[in-house]
Amino acid sequence: MGKIFIYGLYEDDNYEVRYIGKTNKKDILKRLNEHILESFRNNENTHKRNWIKSVINNGKKVNIKCIEEVDENNWEERERFWISNFKNLTNYTDGGQGGNRLFYTISYGDCKNYIKELNIKSKTEWYKKTHLLPDNIPNDPAQSYLNRGWISWGDFLGTNRTQDNIKAQKYIPYDESKKWIKNNLEIYTLIQWKKSAKENKIPDFMPNRPERFYKDRGWISWGDFLSTGRIANQYKKDIFLSYKESQEFMIKNNIRSRSQFRNLQNNIPTAPDKYYKEWTTWGDFFGTGRKQDNLLSIKYLSYDKAKEWIKDNLSDVKNRATWKEYVKQNKIPEIIPNHPELYYNRKNRGWLGWKDFLSKTKKGT
């Protein structure tokens, strides 16, 4: 049998209870937050909402305390009892109606049929549109129809979505989920999983967000769950090579660029520049000695001076293909960028094309 919590709302420096209510939420602070949000989002004037807004607008706080924990079959009687024992309350009724307004005579079924025209698809959307409701429709149907037909928001709004706490009772264990996916679904990435969940291709006996549900029930990683063998960086910390070992691996296997590095499948972090504390540059990591453009650009010659230097020192470089070969052989000095077409093309630094850059005349002559 479920429990119902009878609670009271009061101002933080004045312990006089101003509202009596009930909830089936054990964490009654959540109910307090709902009251506060409802008071500021809803334009409807009630004594309770006006009191809450007045307290908060004056820089004070509204607090909540549990007065009594009762069984769900006798909460109406106990709520009426406590309302009769306090004076100066903001309650509209004598209690037992499941709301802070008038008792709603419209049945659960009739209410469902009425709101079909509103085309509301979620609980969040419902609370944004409560100001559009007529007086005979409750703003908080879950409370008003408690023990009077309420099933779920999915049933009430006609979406037939099942709440997570109800669906979770059907979920199979982590290891069984892994086996089922491997044998029945061709899903290998998180993106594919999310797409399948959005298209309702994930069966009801498995959570759409397994990383949450299985967090304390065996979850390791997406790579493990989807049986791809991929392990995210945060789970590989214990098996990563040290910076020096990684660097030695790069040199031994002649890995000299980031494009080559991206194709590696090894026990080295995918973002070594962010992972290793010893990190300096990619050139140091690959053992090439190359510096990044942002570190070299301080030394770069102007466009005209670079052309002049090339004329005097690299007379055999006559086209872009030869230039690229010189870059590969580290024959371009640090005073000239390896990619002049990028560097000199920014901020009007003078770039006019490869033909001009490698010509043997100065610009403008």
Please specify the SSE layout and strand pairing.
Blueprint: E1 3-11, E2 14-23, H1 28-41, H2 47-57, E3 62-71, H3 75-85, H4 108-115, H5 123-128, H6 141-144, H7 153-157, H8 164-167, H9 174-184, H10 190-198, H11 210-213, H12 222-225, H13 243-252, H14 258-261, H15 272-275, H16 282-286, H17 293-296, H18 303-313, H19 320-328, H20 340-343, H21 354-357
Antiparallel strand pairs: 1-2, 1-3
What would you say this structure looks like, in words?
With 365 residues, the protein is mainly α. The protein folds into 5 domains: 101 residues, GIY-YIG endonuclease, CATH 3.40.1440; 58 residues, no CATH class; 63 residues, no CATH class; 48 residues, no CATH class; 63 residues, no CATH class. It has 21 helices and 3 strands. The chain has a 3-stranded antiparallel β-sheet with strand order 2-1-3. α1 packs across α2. The relative contact order is 0.06. About 2% of the residues have low confidence.
Brief rundown of the structure:
The chain has 365 residues and is mainly alpha-helical.
| CATH architectural arrangement of the largest domain | 3-Layer(aba) Sandwich
- Main pleated sheet: 3 strands, antiparallel
Strands in their spatial order, largest beta sheet: 2-1-3
Instruction: Calculate the terminal CA-CA distance, rounded to whole Å.
Output: 95 Å
Q: What is the total number of structural domains?
A: 5
Query: And the CATH topology of the largest domain?
Result: GIY-YIG endonuclease
H/E topology pattern: EEHHEHHHHHHHHHHHHHHHHHHH
Taking pLDDT < 50 over at least 5 consecutive residues as the criterion, the unreliable ranges are 97-103
The proportion of residues forming helix, as a percent range, comes to 40-55%
C-alpha Rg (nearest Å): 34 Å
Mean pLDDT: 80
What spatial form do the alpha-carbon principal axes imply? elongated
Tell me how many strands there are.
3
Strand content: 5-15%
- CATH domain class of the largest domain: Alpha Beta
| Annotation field: number of helices | 21
Structural class: mainly alpha
